From TrEMBL:
Top-level taxonomic group: Bacteria
Pfam (any one): MarR_2
InterPro entries xrefs: HTH_MarR-typ, MarR/SlyA-like, WH-like_DNA-bd_sf, WH_DNA-bd_sf
Gene3D superfamilies in UniProt: Winged helix-like DNA-binding domain superfamily/Winged helix DNA-binding domain (1.10.10.10)
Organism of origin: Methylibium petroleiphilum (strain ATCC BAA-1232 / LMG 22953 / PM1)
GO terms (BP aspect): response to stress
Domain HTH marR-type as annotated: residue spans: 15-146
SUPFAM superfamilies per record: Winged helix' DNA-binding domain
GO molecular function annotations of the record: DNA-binding transcription factor activity
SMART domains (UniProt xref): HTH_MARR
Protein's recorded name: Transcriptional regulator, MarR family
Amino acid sequence: MTPPPPSRPAVAAPQGCTNLKLRQLSRAVTRHYDAYVAPLGLKNTQYSLLSHVVRLGPIRPGDLARHMRLDASTLTRNLQPLLVQGWVALGPGDDARSRLVEATESGQAKRAEAQRAWKQAQLALNARLGPAQVVALHALIDDCLARLDDAEEDDSDA
């Protein structure tokens, strides 16, 4: 007589609202990073935007918004404080209707200063959560984003 095959552990059904859970996690992580960059006069979102502009600029606002997965209106609103501080500038684009976003010298210096604080925030988060957990979280997020992107492409093809 052969023994029965090993049973698989039951997978629990998701409980609660995924959007709520993600927003709670996002707010907690944002508070963590903000605590490190706030002394430099930046918010988490401003550091991220400034970093993208430094790396990708000069870049058209629409391309920057797509790259950062932001709505154009959100990008415009988030650019305003960086423009006021003189960390980014809007210059002419390829034609009279287009513009390019570019980091200024002071913006590049601010980004370099903030990058050191950001690294400290990341190391502290890694220590708090554990490196294996952070790696697993990144993989899960990347997989979920890819699946959601695929679903959006399927919806737009229909």
